[in-house]
Fold this protein.
Amino acid sequence: MQQSPDQIRQAYRQMRLIREFEERLHVENPKGEIAGFTHLYSGQEAIAVGVCENLRESDFIISTHRGHGHALARGCDPRGMMHEIYGRADGLCKGRGGSMHIADLTKGMLGANGIVGAGQPIAVGAALACKARGDGSVAVSFTGDGASNQGTVFEAMNMAVVLKLPKLFALENNGYSEHTGASYGIGSDLKTRTEGFGIPVWEADGFDYFSVYEATEKALDYIRAGNGPAAILATATRYFGHFEGDPQAYRAKDEVKTFRETVDAMKTIREKVTGAGIFTAEELDEIDAEVLALIDSSVDSARNGPVPGEDILMSDVYIDY
Amino acid sequence: MAEMTMRDALNQALHQEMERDERVIVVGEDVAGGSGGSSGNEEAAGGIFGVTKGLKTRFGGNRVIDTPISESAIVGLANGAALAGMRPVAELMFADFVGVSLDQIFNQMAKFRYMFGGKAKTPVVLRMSMGAGMNAAAQHSQTIYPMLSAIPGLKVAIPSTPADAKGMLATAIRDDDPVIFFEHKALYARKGEVPEGEYLVPFGEAALLREGSDVTVVAIARMVPFAMKAVDKLAGEGITCDLIDMRTTSPIDEETILESLSQTGRLVVVDESNPICSIASEIAGLAASKGFHDLRAPVQKITAPHTPVPFARELERLYVPSPNDIEAAIRAVLKEV
Ligand SMILES: Cc1ncc(C[n+]2csc(CCOP(=O)(O)OP(=O)(O)O)c2C)c(N)n1
Ligand SMILES: [Mg+2]
């Protein structure tokens, strides 16, 4: 563990923030105040944070339909996100986008995306801009096991190699693509397939922040040295349904329970950090309490946030029209 | 007749057509679902809206095929299988995903017959949910039928009732041309009487759902029940309208619309799409070019605004044309002498 206590505290807080944000949404969702599709990231916290803690301010990320974790890990404002998810005029995207389209360009966060496989080519473009800028920045796309089967991902991989772009493919295998198991949809395996494009892959335990952090560090060293794209492949699970309300008939009853009790990302980082004597359990509990209070107040203010109207409906279709 | 939801009516049509013709296959993401999952249930979904439920159990995995997330290849597969003699019913889940597979739709399936000298047959049905109503935001709520209706070679079917859903899907499957079949997601739970057994609704024939003498109201999909609300309300005031459900936007039943217009002289067209190059524009154009001398008032086009579909409940409500908007439009055409 070569990270400083400050870095570790930050990573732990980010993971806790994602966990509590999502667990709270899972509780709030059935109450009927949140509209639309909500895809939760609980279970995969170590991946988003393990990747994003490696990034510089000038780097870019692009997310997926399951975007809350990536957005929070990249530093998007949790309160603004909560307001967006509640469809408020003062949400991060003025209530126009909702859960599936959270974006913050000022943070280099190029958006959650409702079209599976759309983000990867866009990140290739961002990587091209990074290369042109010549400041060592990179662009990261997150890609699920299901999304990895989309032709756009193959094209993006090849093009990133051909153009030797500073692009990190962060592959997240959470075992499912909606109602279908990853093993059904992926003909070979993600590592071999990605390597087939000429992209080196560092594998990581997606429940373990340190494992993801270190894999990403190596991949980024390779990329920032000017070698072209690299990938990490992190395996974890999602704790909730594909979307809130999913009955999950495809899943064994105790599958999630087992993951939660054995390899859970929060449990893992707590054990490692306290075991190495970096923080005490009480110190971590303090972080938890601060995060919980932030989530509470974000939900409260989001529930009472301003309702968007005609002006928001009709503006921003163009800059000038 | 039996009362059922549009979802179940579609499901019944699929069962009956698969029973009738073993060349009919169903392909798409999670049309069965569950393969590779830890529960071992290999029909865990039956389509995310439940339209394809029970098909895999009944007809097996060779005819009900779950695919990876690869829309371009899903439509390509349907095209190739159709050219080679099968009758695929492919599902795109959300109409917005046409964006991923558009080449296979408009350069390929739509054009084979013409380009290949009239020798090819591409009997694909491409089913997809569409429309606002679930706050699914800009990439999961669009009504893109105008765009696809503009492509020569495609037929476009858009049922608004459970009975039509059943009859039109069966017709689509038996049709030798490619058919884009739109299912409005806010109508899946809509109930209605559905004929039992074999039931076919011909394409290119609009349905006259209400008869009246003051105004012709033309609507599509979810706008049909919305328009019906407005029309029935106004009937209480003695204002009577013809309400026409287009049912197919390619081909368009011009005759029914023009015949009604010749009686009423006033036209309101209701279309959930964006206004530019909409079906509303198409029908207004039809009235201007072929019904000009019947018109006694400017045509009222009721559409969504020229914006993407917004997320928040309040915004989506503002975006989608409402029964009130339709009522106001009917009153407006009546004001003109
Ligand atoms: C182009 C496109 N096809 C299909 C969908 C519907 N869909 C949304 S998420 C998803 C599964 C994605 O699986 P994966 O990439 O593994 O991400 P996860 O949901 O596991 O995070 C599907 C099929 C979509 N949104 N866009
Ligand atoms: Mg997945």
Notes: Chain B has a mean pLDDT of 98. The two ends of chain B are 44 Å apart (CA to CA). The interface with chain A takes residues 29-30, 33-41, 44-45, 48, 66, 68-73, 96-97, 99-100, 134-140, 305-308, 310-316, 318-319 of chain B (CB under 8 Å).
